[in-house]
Amino acid sequence: MEKIFRMFKYISISFFLLISTAIAAQINMEEVPRDPQGFTLGINLAGPFNRIMDNDRTGISFLTRINVAENLFFRGEAGFENVSFNQDAYSYDSNGTFLKAGIELNSLSKREPGTHAHLLFGIAYGMAIQEQSASRFTIENSYWPDFVDRVGSHTVNTHWVELSGGPRVEVFQNLYLGWSIHLRVSVLRDNPEMLKPYYVPGFGNGDNRLNGGFSYTIEYLIPWKK
Amino acid sequence: MLRPFKFLFIILFVAMMLPASCTQDQICLSNQSAVQVELVSFHTNRDTTLAGTTIFGLDRSSERIYDSISVSRLFLPLSFSSDTTAFVISSDNYLDTIWFRHQSEMEYISRECGFTFNFELDTIWFTNTFIDSVSIIYPLVNYGEDFQNVQIYIY
Questions:
Q1: What is the distance between the alpha carbons of residues A158 and A188, in angstroms, rounded to a whole number?
Q2: Which of A27-31, B27-31, B79-83 has the highest mean pLDDT?
Q3: How far apart are CA A76 and CA A66, in angstroms?
Q4: How many Å apart are CA A189 and CA A177, to the nearest integer?
Q5: How far away is chain B from the Cα of A144, in angstroms, using its nearest Cα?
Q6: Contact B9/A169 with Cβ under 8 angstroms?
Q7: Domains in chain A, please, with CATH?
Q8: Among A2, A112, B10, B89, which residue's Cβ finds the most Cβ atoms within 10 Å?
Q9: Which positions in chain B have a beta carbon within 8 angstroms of at least one beta carbon in chain A?
């Protein structure tokens, strides 16, 4: 089943890249006035969606995009993710928050009057702080007694660099839907020796230095200049 | 026209949600703390088989690792709570005891599999009923490795 999901993921990504390229190439409209200047307040649905797929995770994040120049956006995001589970090898709890800040460039330079759509490519720096513990872990022995112990609560910091790309479109006035693919590379992690984070908030699988990810965003634009 | 763009965008927005949190499960290995022992004939210097072999941990005679079978290769699990693990080996009413002295170090494997102990064999000593000698070929007993660690030479 998982293979099918993974295959579907790759097909979706390929399809998206194809479509995006085709759309970017085909849109050939007259130049119109700039996008409305302003900032957005939005929500990233990746966290709630992860919760549906995996009951152990609870998280959500909020973002803002600020139109700092023509086709250039500042993107900031802050959120939290808590992870809690009890499996044979260990019981685990983590509470953490993250912050991301970066810039995005819009690669759709032509616009249809009255419509706002963007194909955004960006780079961001992310950092997460989480407090994690394993209230019990068991190392099984096939003959002698098992070893049971715990890892006390401790703080882990993770920093990463993130590349992202994806479209965003105004579906109603000032209301934008967007999704993007992320590629994240961790650049710094402290306190990793005993127990690596199961999930790093905003980053993903704590065992990996390189993670992929998705965002699904709903944003409301608050214009300060037309 | 940007309408097709919007339409495709929304379709893909929903479709992309499906695979978002798929992760690859890792297979966790079990019985990774056993010393692998090869039995060698003292006379011929070749692999040999020990008939009617029963093996249990010292002071745990009721729980047998091998029970009256012919063996040429042994997997002897090391203890997590002690730095010496001892086994009684009996074959056709002959008895020997063998002690493995080891250092152990706990290690995190992965988020799926949790923790393990890796071992390094220091010293082996034994009684001499049918065991002639013992040699350590590879002292490390590590998670995910599959090496023969010890040769026991049988009279």
A1: 6
A2: B79-83
A3: 9
A4: 33
A5: 6
A6: yes
A7: 33-225 (2.40.160.20)
A8: B89
A9: 1-2, 5-6, 8-10, 12-13, 15-25, 28, 30-31, 33-34, 57, 60, 63, 65, 77-81, 85, 106, 108, 110-117
Joined together, the tokens standing for residue B43 give 């006379």
Give the helix ranges, DSSP H, for chain B: 3-17
**Residue among A40, A47, A108 nearest A74 (CA):** A40
- As for the ipTM of the complex, it is 0.82
Q: Which residue type, as a one-letter code, is found at position A67?
A: N
Structural domain includes residue B100: yes
Query: If you average pLDDT over every residue of chain B, what do you get?
Result: 86
Tell me the per-residue pLDDT of B22-34, one tens digit each, with 9 for 90 and over: 455 678 887 788 9
Q: Record the tokens describing residue B104, joined without a space.
A: 């152990």
Q: What is the largest CA-CA distance in chain B?
A: 91
Is B45 contained in some domain? yes
**Model confidence over A178-225: pLDDT tens digits?**
999 999 999 998 876 678 899 999 999 988 999 999 999 999 999 886
Whether residue A8 and residue B19 make contact (CB cut-off 8 A), yes or no, is: yes
Domain count, chain B: 1
User: For residue A93, which of A148, A139, A152, A45 has the smallest C-alpha distance?
Assistant: A152
Global confidence as pTM: 0.75
Residue B131 lies in a domain: yes
Which among B1, B57, B114 has CB closest to A144?
B57
Residues of the domain holding B149:
31-154
What residue of A is the nearest CA neighbor of B15? A12
